[in-house]
User: Which sequence fits this backbone?
């Protein structure tokens, strides 16, 4: 089994990692953790380096638990939701785990909802975690 976790360094994403560890142990799964950064004029190399360094820290608890874990940083012109769905299709992922947080309707309208996009477009089951 292959599990994909969308990780954006938020509390909800950290909760999603906890569930991924539980599912990884229960199902002897291979876990992929993906941070997606949207390419823009304001994105700097330091931002990418920071994301990669944070991902390295995320991998340690999986290794300690004996769970195979791969970390990925993606920089593209796609939204994070589109990037997660693309990755899931390419890697034949069996389950996606995403963190969700409460936002206003205006906030969702302005910035969109990554979790909503993934839930509606994923090629596999999606577990949403608060």
Assistant:
């Amino acid at each position: 089994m292959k599990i994909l976790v969308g990780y954006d360094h938020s509390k909800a994403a950290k909760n999603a990692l906890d569930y991924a560890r539980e599912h990884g142990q229960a199902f002897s799964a291979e876990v992929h953790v993906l941070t997606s950064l949207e390419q823009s004029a304001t994105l700097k190399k330091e931002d990418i380096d920071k994301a990669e360094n944070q991902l390295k820290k995320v991998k340690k608890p999986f290794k300690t638990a004996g769970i195979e874990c791969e970390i990925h940083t993606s920089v593209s012109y796609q939204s994070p939701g589109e990037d997660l769905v693309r990755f899931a299709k390419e890697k034949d992922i069996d389950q996606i785990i995403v963190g969700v947080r409460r936002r206003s309707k205006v906030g969702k309208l302005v910035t969109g909802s990554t979790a909503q996009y993934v839930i509606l477009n994923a090629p596999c089951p999606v577990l949403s975690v608060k």
Remarks:
- The longest strand covers residues 30-38.
- The chain has one domain: 2-129.
- The first helix runs from residue 11 to 26.
